[in-house]
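Narrative summary of target 7.
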Amino acid sequence: MFETLLLGIEQLKDPIIWLVLIMGSILGIFIGATPGIGPGVGIALLLPVTYSMEPLAGITLLMGLYAAGWYGGAIPAITINTPGTGVNVLTTYDGYPMAKSGEPQRALSLAYASSFTGGIFAVLVLMIAAWPLANLSNYLTSADLGMATLLAMVLVVVAHRGSEFSSFALLSTGLFISTIGLETAYGSPRYTFGTTWMMSGVPLISMILGLFALSQAFTLIFSNRVIEKKDTEVDRRLLSGFIEIFKYPKVLLRSAGFGVGMGVLPGVGEFLAQFFSYATARAGSKTPEKFGRGAPEGIIASETANNAVPPAALVPLLSLGIPGEAFTAMMLSVFIVHGVDPGPTLFEEHKGFVAGLYLSLFIMNFIIVGILLVGTRWIAKLAMVNDRILAIIIICLVIVGTFSRNYRLTDTLIAIFFGVLGFALRRANIPMVPLILGLVLGPIIERYFRQATGAAAGDMTIFLTRPVSLIFLLTILFLVAKSCRDVIIQIRSKKV
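Modeled conformation, tokenized:
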């Protein structure tokens, strides 16, 4: 642990790291505090910028924006009953009633303190868990890692309860898209239809910018949100919550645990962590009738859980090289561009990078809270920005970002196509994450399965004779069977 700290301090001697820490935190807070954008759009827009940075600087910038977005999203959720991001919905349940009763600073202070505690707790878990997990993964073969990737795909589908069919369809579509272009082993073209511009496959950056940024811009164009200026007024007395949260230690620790546990599992993420945290906090409260009317435990449960997820989501990415959700899939692309292979070898070949990332994530929470304590009064006014102006800015940035990457008009057209597709999926309430993960996980599972079957001379029983692989396979079969049973029960109940 001491060696890790020294390596991390060595990495943070670079002033660029401090610059991206501050810039990522500021941008994340601003994006989170502006309803309708969210960290996903911000990360998608900044992704082309990070490709020209060093890996640590690029990942730190994205993580700063990712984590700070959830902090900032609590501001409009509490002050105007409009969640800044999708994961701040539950914060409105008790944050807005508390603000409406004349205590907006108390609600914001509780949200900041809870987010800070959840973030710090998750970073500590990451520091403790990632190294042993990476050492354990040294004993895993291609068959084990391939089956682990397949398990991640299954978890992505079953995590979207009620949307299993659409999630499976989009995951399959993403897997198909990942096969377009030159095949890596022999260099033979697949599904290029004789064109040259499809030889390199579908650009991940165009797909991400289209699905997340452009689709959100199209949504904002049709928005009719109206905000009154008086609703955003708050003062700067925001330190009391850092003491008050410790009056509810069970809620605090349990919610942080849910956030970390759900963050590590692929395809689960903030929403389920929040739901379980809020539900258990209400069930265990002596005054459950106060929930939804300004209960401090509700704010603590919601904000602690969603801010514990981002660092925890890095555990499978860093230790196994498997992204668990869309944001870590975007971060994986930064690794790929710089030739850094996340997984067991990362901890041996890039110890300084890993240690620097840990320390950056730890310091990041202090920077974010410092900015919020000083600037909340002005940041809250971002909720007044017209949605259509935001949409125009996002569209311009997407067009510039996709074209400037390779100076190809086809990349921009692909982004527009996925933007229209993403807009349709949003209107139909169909999750987009499986599509992104299908594109990212496709090459990973293809590589591992090819290596495993090649080493076994084509013998597919390699996935049954390896104990770890067999455990993963049995888990997959159990999850699929359980999910199918739940779907059948839902269909029968609707008929009745």
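Strands lie at 181-182, 189-190.
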